[in-house]
Predict the structure of Acetyltransferase.
Amino acid sequence: MNDIYIGVYGASGFGKEVMPLVRQQFPHLATEQFVFIDDSNNIQQLNGYKVLSFDQFIQHKASIKKVTIAIANSKVREELIEKLNTESIQHLDVKAENVIRLDDVMIGKGSILCPFVCLTSNIKIGKFFHANIYSYIAHDCIIGDYVTFAPGVKCNGNIIIEDHAYIGTGAVIKQGTPDKPLVIGKGAVVGMGAVVTKSVPAGVTVIGNPARPLVR
């Protein structure tokens, strides 16, 4: 067990929340076997854990290295994943102990499911998905790759959320129907507290209740 080294990529607010979840999954490992990875932070320690650069992490002598990426920006997340793949680092799935997962739920690798997340039934989720605290996904939803849910997202049934979409804190997405699911397009952003009642085109940011495109 001493040959395992585990990193949380991102020494920020979300990283601080993810580290205890990672520790729960590996209760027999020592504190020094867990580190934060951050290339833009000058601090050397955070909440009792070392903060290393990526190069320092790679140079560690442990033969088994696993990493989760606690960064909300999905484009940055994708870039870091490619970096980890180059070094053959294992991707870590993180799941709080009280996550609810019902029937026929498929989740791709590298997900982070925070406390009180609920995934009901007949759901397909892509790789490197983030669901922050108190978010839920209801029945018959399809979630793409690198999708991010901020805290308290309410994703109701028969919804399709495409790759790299970001759903803000407390957003509510109205339920679609089996023959006409509501679609959140690729790279779309749903603002904090927005109530989405119709499909959102790719790359568009919507805000408000009912949600409407943000005019810049």
Q: What stands out?
A: The helical segments are 13-25, 54-59, 74-86. The chain has two domains: 4-92, 95-206. The chain has a mean pLDDT of 96.
